[in-house]
Structures are given as C-alpha cells and as structure tokens.
C-alpha cells in the first residue's frame, strides 16, 4: 500500500488544468475476452462503436496500425465522416508511407474533418513485425528516420514554394507547395521508452505517449521528456498522453471480482499464443513493474501486463467509477492532459466510461477551475490508500 496523500490539498504545480479523453476504435466485436478469428470490418458494429464514442464524450479515437490490420488512413476518414466532434488519430509507420505522401494524406483527412486530424508516428518496436513490410532498419535508426519524417511533414504543410530534400532516409526534388491542412500544422504524437524515443519526442513531438506506470516513475519520465524539450530550445512542451485499461463495477469489491475473472480469461488466451521476450523498452518496463508488485498507488494493477507479456498498453485501473476517476486525476496532477482509456469488453466499456468516468473527471476539473482547489473526490475514494481495497484484491483472487 502506498502512502496516503493529503486530502483536499492545493492543486499541485505539476497538474494539468485540462484533460481530454482518447479511445481506441474497434472494427468488429472481437475482444481480448472473446476473440473472434477475423481480420474483417463489421460495418454495423463499427458504426455503432464510433457513435458510442461520440455519445460517451470522448475527444479522440486512435486508429491502430499493423501489418495485418485495416489501413489506418481509410478507417480514420470513415471515423471523420461518421462523427461530428471526435478527432481521429492516425497511427502511421514511417516505413509504410513516403513523408510527402503522408503529408498529403494527413492534410486531406484534416480538410475532410475540418481540423480534427492527429497523427501518431510509430517508429516500430518489433523487428519481425517491421520486416513483414520490408523494414530492416535497426531500432535506433528507425527513430532517426522518424525525426527526419517529422521535419518533412511540417515543411510539406507550411512551405509556400517547392522545396527539395536530401537526407539520410529520404530524397526528393521540388515538392510542393503541398496540399494544405485545414487550419495550420497537424499535431504529431510519438511514444516509446528508449533513449532515442525521448530524444526525438522531446525535441520535436507535440504529444508524447506513455503507457500507465506508477505515478512517481511516470513523473520522472515526464520530467525527462520536458527537460529534453527545453534543452532543444522549445518554449511549448509536449503534451503528455497516458493509457490505461480500466476495469470498473459498482463498488471496489465488485470491480475486483470482475478483474480477476477477466485476467483469468485473458491469461488463458495469451498462454495459447505463446510468449517471447519483448524487444521494446515500454513492454520491458511494464513487466518489471509487474514483477515488483501487482498494486501501485490508488488503483494501478499490473497483473494484466504480466499475463499478456505487456503486449501493448496493458496496465489496468481497478475499482468503482469514483476510485478509477480519482486515480485518473492523480495522473492529471502529475502532468497528463491526454488520457486514453479502453476496456476489455470494448463497446460496453466505452459506454460505461462515458456514463461513469468522464463526467466525474470533468466535474472535478471544473471545480478546480472555479475554486482554485481540489474537490473531495480523491480524498473520499482512496482505493489502495485504504487497507480494505487490498483485501478486496486478495479475496477476489483466492
């Protein structure tokens, strides 16, 4: 159990005054709890899911990319036309799309959505997955390529006359002026835990993405990326994006029963798939945290990472809606302004988050803006700062 924070304290100086919520778009009803062997798009489900995100009040949705997945640009365009407010985040690997072409595609999406496009650049954390689409660069050079890619994207969107480029990874002559975005350059996000990721993200990214980690560890990582940004002469620091897999129920005790049922089912599925040692630093960190402890801070649970070999964002927040909302606010207090929450029962969880989590967090931030003080939510819902919470976790597991 962690040390209990002071109740109703002043707002920490590291706190973000705002938070926006991100989800992940799903193309069909297959989930980690009930996987369906398909790579297809179930169009009625997809329409329903995207509308659920809009109705729930999410601000963004991430369109993931993999060598065997649907094309993220095409899906993002569909999201843009199916919604009025949600901002589609295109996951893009620099090895798959030449940067001037990527700039055109993103600017086109930005025009079609009237200013809602965002891009998340994935340098690639797995050599075998990169090789499936012909990319054999070592990981450190992949981040160097991402750095060059960012420069070309921004020039493509802003240069008033044709320009040429002769770099380490890309070469072209007299490109442009490129197709312009709707209203200025499109926000660029990157993530990763390697030294190369921090160097590129600190110097050039608008958004830097993390998976859910213990609060003090994440705060150190935020300080690191912001320090690199300042060292690069930046006055506007990257926004911080952090991702969790909340498991909620009416009470903390019921949430723990649900969490133990979920993890048993997920573990069996991943056991059948087999697991190797992950190459990416983010997964290695998640597994190290899981080996050290299952519970951190107010509600962070790492067993979901342990049983999935930390394959992607996999750390959970477990508890009643109030407990999970308070835990999210802890991360906002540490500097996160973008919070991605996606569940294991994808559609039902998205709807539940919209009903029970997003309003609580936004209500607290509105209270802070009006009063200059924290509200009572964090003090009244201590989660793991109360010994009873850990007993629920233990009882549910036995």
Automatic annotation (TrEMBL):
Luciferase-like domain residues: 41-337
SUPFAM superfamilies found in the cross-reference section: Bacterial luciferase-like
Keyword field contains Iron: no
Sorted UniProt keywords: Flavoprotein, FMN, Monooxygenase, Oxidoreductase
InterPro entries named in the record: Luciferase-like_dom, Luciferase-like_sf, SsuD_RutA_monooxygenase
Molecular functions per Gene Ontology: monooxygenase activity; oxidoreductase activity, acting on paired donors, with incorporation or reduction of molecular oxygen
Signal peptide bounds: none
Full protein name: Luciferase-like domain-containing protein
Lineage per the UniProt record: Bacteria, Bacillati, Actinomycetota, Actinomycetes, Micromonosporales
């Amino acid at each position: 159990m962690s040390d209990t924070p002071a109740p109703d304290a002043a707002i920490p100086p590291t706190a973000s005054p705002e938070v926006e919520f991100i989800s992940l778009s799903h193309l069909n009803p297959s989930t980690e709890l009930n996987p369906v062997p398909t790579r297809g798009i179930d169009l009625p489900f997809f329409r329903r899911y995207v509308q659920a995100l809009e109705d729930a009040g999410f601000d963004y949705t991430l369109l993931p990319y993999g060598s065997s997945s649907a094309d993220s640009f095409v899906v993002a365009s569909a999201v843009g036309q199916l919604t009025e407010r949600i901002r589609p985040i295109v996951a893009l690997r620099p090895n798959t799309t030449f940067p001037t072409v990527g700039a055109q595609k993103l600017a086109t999406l930005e025009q079609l959505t009237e200013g809602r496009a965002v891009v998340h650049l994935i340098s690639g954390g797995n050599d075998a997955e990169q090789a499936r689409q012909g990319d054999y660069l070592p990981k450190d050079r992949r981040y160097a390529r991402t750095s060059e890619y960012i420069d070309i994207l921004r020039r493509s969107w802003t240069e008033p006359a044709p320009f040429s480029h002769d770099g380490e990874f890309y070469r072209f002559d007299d490109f442009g002026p490129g197709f312009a975005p709707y209203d200025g350059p499109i926000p660029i996000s990157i993530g990763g835990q390697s030294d190369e990721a921090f160097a590129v993200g600190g110097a050039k990214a608008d958004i830097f993405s993390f998976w859910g980690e213990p609060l003090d560890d994440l705060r150190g990582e935020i300080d690191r990326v912001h320090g690199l940004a300042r060292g690069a002469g930046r006055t506007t620091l990257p926004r911080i994006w952090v991702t969790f897999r909340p498991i909620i129920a009416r009470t903390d005790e019921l949430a723990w029963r649900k969490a133990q049922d979920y993890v048993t089912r997920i573990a069996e599925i991943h056991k059948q798939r087999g697991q190797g040692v992950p190459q990416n630093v983010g997964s290695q960190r998640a597994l190290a945290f899981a080996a050290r402890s299952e519970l951190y801070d107010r509600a962070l649970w790492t067993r979901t990472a342990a049983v999935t070999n930390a394959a992607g964002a996999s750390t959970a927040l477990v508890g009643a809606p109030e407990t999970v909302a308070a835990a999210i606010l802890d991360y906002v207090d540490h500097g996160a302004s973008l919070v991605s929450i996606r569940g294991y029962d994808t559609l039902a969880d998205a709807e539940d988050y919209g009903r029970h989590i997003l309003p609580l967090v936004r209500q607290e931030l509105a209270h802070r803006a009006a009063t200059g003080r924290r509200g009572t939510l964090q003090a009244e819902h201590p989660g793991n700062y109360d010994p009873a919470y850990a007993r629920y976790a233990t009882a549910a597991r036995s």
